[in-house]
């Protein structure tokens, strides 16, 4: 009790998972709360030795959970502070966050200078923004609210606050898909082909924002993705490429914080998208990047006009940050491959790389197209000869061999496992598949549990223009719990006909 009249409290571990949020739990009658005037949802500075974090206060009115002189921390907060049960922490006020004035100014339509974005991103990275404040910033950047120069400033700010990699190779390549299309897991295939061709491709990927699986979620089903910078360098030096989660190495740490809120909002604005993608490419040390923009009425980019506008913006921003960029427009009318969800998409990847006869042709062809463009834009292939070169690498098994080598260099290769519970969705009529709603299909996969449950998702068997008969299986749902499968089936009772239109 020597700290009764101070701002020190003992840590009690209560095992609450708040995902990426730092939460501190204190009694309503705690002497620190009373003396400092702390109230629920107040943002506080929490210190332990030479570390500090900013945490949101949750007030406990049940006296049995905490004793006087105790505070509890979420699991994320305990990990970041590196504290254990009974360690002492100091709790103090958070000073006013000056950069929030610029967020408010942006909400009212003011054009911000580059230093304003740098201040905002610095404060976000330091954890000074609550989720509500992060949502305000995301909203201020949504739609057409940012000018080109502001997108450049935002991108540069996101590059500067994180780690930056550099490589001895003169040309370092990367690719990215804008997303919004279920499946489309081209990255592991492209990385394997390009590394086998002798180019350097240190691929860092994101986890899902609004989709049933991000690339990192799928790759994690067969190898480790949470590598540190030293491990990444070792893998790339040995094999020429890697497939890792960028958030683990804080290449663009503000982006990962923003993504966690964007996921909750189900929002991915063009400005944030451009800054997110290009900041991570630049931070990873890339010099040449191919961007895949799928176009379709239920994809993220719905029209050619919108795609051209996005392409032109990306080209302007990439030039400002010294990236050589090529943009490829692709078909976004339907899922790519058959799998939707981490493990299901990973199985498609493996089938393509192994050259299985039943491997999804569309995933294979799209991957070859993107890999060919990378070889051509770097001069590794002359003119339009890139496709034949990457085709040969895949056909001869060189890409599969390189894929296995990269996986082993990252720590393991494991066969992806599917969820225990499944449900076949069958056609109740004869006809032809005329339209697919990608957004509703993605929603259905998420209700199955993807991406949080790696084995959850959809095995999609009904591409556009396929003839179906009554009783044919259109797609199969996979879940790791019966409850999640029931949620998905309930969604189907209302949306089955609009997910897949059969005429």
How does this model look, in words?
It is a single chain. The chain is α/β, with parallel strands linked by helices and 503 residues long. It has four domains: 8-93, Barwin-like endoglucanases (Beta Barrel); 100-160, Up-down Bundle (Transferase, Pyrimidine Nucleoside Phosphorylase, Chain A, domain 3), CATH 1.20.970; 173-409, Pyrimidine Nucleoside Phosphorylase, Chain A, domain 2 (3-Layer(aba) Sandwich); 421-502, Alpha-Beta Complex (Aldehyde Oxidoreductase, domain 3), CATH 3.90.1170.30. 41% of the residues lie in helices and 19% in strands. The protein contains 18 helices and 18 strands. It has helices spanning 31-36, 75-81, 100-107, 114-125, 131-140, 148-160, 187-196, 215-219, 229-239, 253-265, 270-283, 304-320, 342-354, 361-377, 386-395, 398-409, 438-447, 482-499, and strands spanning 8-13, 23-27, 43-48, 51-60, 70-73, 88-93, 173-177, 201-205, 241-245, 288-295, 324-331, 339-340, 421-426, 431-436, 457-460, 467-468, 473-479, 500-502. Strands 1-5-2-4-3-6 form a six-stranded mixed beta barrel. It has a four-stranded antiparallel sheet with strand order 12-15-17-13. Strands 7-10-11 form a three-stranded parallel sheet, sandwiched between helices. The longest helix is centred in the last third of the chain and has 18 residues, at 482-499. The radius of gyration is 24 Å and the shape is globular. The model has no long low-confidence stretch (mean pLDDT 93).
Protein topology:
Elements: E1 8-13, E2 23-27, H1 31-36, E3 43-48, E4 51-60, E5 70-73, H2 75-81, E6 88-93, H3 100-107, H4 114-125, H5 131-140, H6 148-160, E7 173-177, H7 187-196, E8 201-205, H8 215-219, H9 229-239, E9 241-245, H10 253-265, H11 270-283, E10 288-295, H12 304-320, E11 324-331, E12 339-340, H13 342-354, H14 361-377, H15 386-395, H16 398-409, E13 421-426, E14 431-436, H17 438-447, E15 457-460, E16 467-468, E17 473-479, H18 482-499, E18 500-502
Parallel strand pairs: 1-5, 2-4, 7-10, 8-9, 10-11
Antiparallel strand pairs: 1-6, 2-5, 3-4, 3-6, 12-15, 13-17, 14-16, 14-18, 15-17
Helix pairs in contact: 3-5, 4-6, 4-10, 5-10, 6-11, 6-12, 7-14, 7-16, 9-16, 11-12, 14-15, 17-18
């Amino acid at each position: 009790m020597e700290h009764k009249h101070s701002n020190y409290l003992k840590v009690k571990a209560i095992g609450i998972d708040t995902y990426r949020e730092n939460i501190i739990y204190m009694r309503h009658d705690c002497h620190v709360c009373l003396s400092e005037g702390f109230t629920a949802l107040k943002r506080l500075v929490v210190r332990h030795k030479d570390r500090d974090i900013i945490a949101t206060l949750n007030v406990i009115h049940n006296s049995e959970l905490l004793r006087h002189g105790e505070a509890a921390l979420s699991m994320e907060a305990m990990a970041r502070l590196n504290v254990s049960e009974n360690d002492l922490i100091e709790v103090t006020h958070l000073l006013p966050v000056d950069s929030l004035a610029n967020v408010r100014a942006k909400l009212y339509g003011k054009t911000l200078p580059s230093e304003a974005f740098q201040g905002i991103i610095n404060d976000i990275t330091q954890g000074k923004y609550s989720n509500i404040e992060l949502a305000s910033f995301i909203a201020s950047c949504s739609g057409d609210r940012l000018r080109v120069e502001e997108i450049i400033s935002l991108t540069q700010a996101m590059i500067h606050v994180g780690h930056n990699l550099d490589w001895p190779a003169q040309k370092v390549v990367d690719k990215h898909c804008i997303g919004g299309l279920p499946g489309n897991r081209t990255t592991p295939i492209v990385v394997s082909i390009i590394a086998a061709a002798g180019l350097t491709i240190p691929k860092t990927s994101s986890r899902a924002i609004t989709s049933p699986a991000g690339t990192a979620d799928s790759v994690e089903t067969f190898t480790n993705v949470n590598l540190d910078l030293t491990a990444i360098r070792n893998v790339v030096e040995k094999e020429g490429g890697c497939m890792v989660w960028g958030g683990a190495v804080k290449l663009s740490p503000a982006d990962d914080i923003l993504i966690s809120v964007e996921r909750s909002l189900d929002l991915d604005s063009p400005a944030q998208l451009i800054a997110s993608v290009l900041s991570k490419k630049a931070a990873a040390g890339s010099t040449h990047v191919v961007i895949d923009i799928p176009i379709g009425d239920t994809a993220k980019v719905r029209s050619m006009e919108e795609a051209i506008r996005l392409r032109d913006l990306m080209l302007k921003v990439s030039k400002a940050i010294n990236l050589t960029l090529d943009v490829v427009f692709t078909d976004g009318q339907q899922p790519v491959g058959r799998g939707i969800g981490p493990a299901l998409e990973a199985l498609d990847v493996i089938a393509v790389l192994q050259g299985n006869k039943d491997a999804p042709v569309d995933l294979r062809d799209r991957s070859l197209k993107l890999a060919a463009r990378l070889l051509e834009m770097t001069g590794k292939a002359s003119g339009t000869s890139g496709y034949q070169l990457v085709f040969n690498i895949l056909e001869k098994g060189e890409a599969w061999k390189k894929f296995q080598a990269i996986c082993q260099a990252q720590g393991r290769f494991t066969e992806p496992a599917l969820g225990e519970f499944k449900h076949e969705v069958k056609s109740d009529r004869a006809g032809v598949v005329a339209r697919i709603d990608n957004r509703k299909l993605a929603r259905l996969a998420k209700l199955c549990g993807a991406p949080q449950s790696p084995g959850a998702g959809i095995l999609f068997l009904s591409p556009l223009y396929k003839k179906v008969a009554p009783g044919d299986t259109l797609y199969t749902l996979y879940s790791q719990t019966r409850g999640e499968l029931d949620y998905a089936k309930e969604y189907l009772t209302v949306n089955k006909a609009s997910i897949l239109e059969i005429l």
